[in-house]
Design goal:
Radius of gyration: 29 Å
Structural class: mainly alpha
CATH topology of the largest domain: MetI-like fold
Number of strands: 0
Family: Belongs to the binding-protein-dependent transport system permease family.
Organism: Dictyobacter alpinus
Number of helices: 15
CATH architecture of the largest domain: Orthogonal Bundle
GO cellular component, one term: plasma membrane
Distance between the termini: 59 Å
Strand content: under 5%
Helix content: over 70%
Order of helices and strands: HHHHHHHHHHHHHHH
Number of domains: 2
Largest sheet: none
GO biological process, one term: transmembrane transport
CATH superfamily of the largest domain: MetI-like
Keywords: Cell membrane, Membrane, Sugar transport, Transmembrane, Transmembrane helix, Transport
Oligomer: single chain
CATH class of the largest domain: Mainly Alpha
Length: about 300
């Protein structure tokens, strides 16, 4: 019996070892594939962040070093002179001020009225609803460049050229924002709204107390997209503004080299590039801060409604 028991034990042990080797053999291609994916993702991340990192590092380098050794980094030569010269030569605060005003008024109007319009299209029935929603969607098909001349003529007739009204008014309502919020609000269960209606809640009360809390991630994503759209807008501000006091940040950056040469005639091309790198870094900081602060809400909002249960 002892001999049979030992033989059986050896057989069982060999079988278990064989099974473990088989499992490892099956898992090894999976691990290699996953490792390859991680390597490719790391390469993609490096390629993506390299220009941003190079810009930030170059903003601390002397101008001649940017031209002669753009990829090298000498810690002993890093300096803040580019930033000092930039703020002395160029009124960056004017660009930030004008951009902030447009963001506050135009972005605030978009975040206030577009979700309300999306709520109406998603949860209410009224005459001409489908036609009106189709008309809103059709405006998204018109190229923005085709609307510049009519808008410019309209702003001229209203005497709003080179003013905050001209900067803000054309973008107060965003068709994409209406479509985005309508699609998100459509996923809110009608039972919740019916229960709130039975309890005596008004449509505005249903929106603020039920819809808004349920779609906070989507609203956060919309806020980031609205911020980026207004913050990076260049074509319309450069057309509607004429004076330096009305320039937004992007328009100011596009004319930065000219302003540096006008304010500091002795500035060489190398030094100007150092100041341009410093200005670009300063302009990038608000975007980075916003995305880092709201990255979870942005990702959740972008994925909201993508998985139907």
């Amino acid at each position: 019996m002892a001999i049979i028991t030992k033989a059986s034990t050896r057989k069982i042990t060999s079988i278990s070892v064989y099974r473990q080797h088989s499992i490892l053999a099956r898992r090894s291609p999976v691990r290699v594939g996953r490792l390859l994916v991680y390597v490719l993702l790391c390469i993609a991340v490096l390629v993506t962040i390299f220009p941003l990192g190079w810009m930030i590092i170059s903003s601390f380098k002397p101008g001649n070093e940017i031209a002669t050794a753009p990829l090298s980094v000498n810690l002993q030569t890093l300096t803040l002179n580019n930033y000092r010269a930039l703020f002395e030569a160029v009124p960056m605060w004017i660009g930030f001020q004008n951009t902030f005003i447009v963001l506050l008024l135009q972005g605030g109007a978009t975040m206030l009225f577009c979700p309300l319009a999306g709520f109406a299209f998603a949860k209410f029935e009224f005459r001409g609803k489908k036609f009106l929603f189709a008309f809103v969607l059709s405006t998204m098909m018109v190229p923005a460049i085709a609307m510049i001349l009519p808008l410019l003529l309209e702003m001229g007739a209203l005497n709003w050229v080179d003013s905050y009204q001209g900067l803000i008014a054309p973008g107060l309502v965003n068709a994409f924002a209406i479509f985005w919020t309508r699609q998100q609000i459509a996923d809110v269960p009608n039972e919740l709204l019916e229960a709130a209606k039975v309890d005596g809640c008004t449509p505005i009360g249903m929106y603020w107390r039920i819809v808004v809390p349920l779609m906070r991630p989507a609203l956060a994503a919309l806020a980031i997209m609205t911020f980026l759209g207004i913050y990076n807008d260049f074509v319309w501000p450069v057309i509607i503004t004429g004076s330096d006091s009305m320039q937004t940040l992007q328009v100011l950056l596009s004319n930065l080299a000219t302003q540096i040469n006008n304010s500091s005639p002795g500035t060489t091309g190398h030094d100007a590039w150092g100041m341009i790198m410093a200005a670009s870094t300063v302009a990038t900081v608000p975007v980075l801060v916003l995305f880092i602060a709201l990255q979870r809400q942005f990702i959740s909002g972008m994925l909201a409604g993508s998985i139907k249960g």
